[in-house]
Amino acid sequence: MSNSSPARVIIIDDHPIMRMGLSQLLGALEGVEVMGESGSANEAVQLLESLGKVDLAIVDMSLPDRSGLELIKDFRVMDEDLKCLVISSHDENVYAERVLRAGGRGYMMKDRAPELLGDAVKKVLAGGVFLSPEMTSKMMEVFAGGGSGNPVSALSDRELEVYRAIGAGKSSREIAGIMGISIRTVDAHRTHIKDKLGFRDAAELTYEAIRWVESQA
Question: Which fold has domain 7-143?
Answer without folding.
Answer: Rossmann fold (3.40.50)
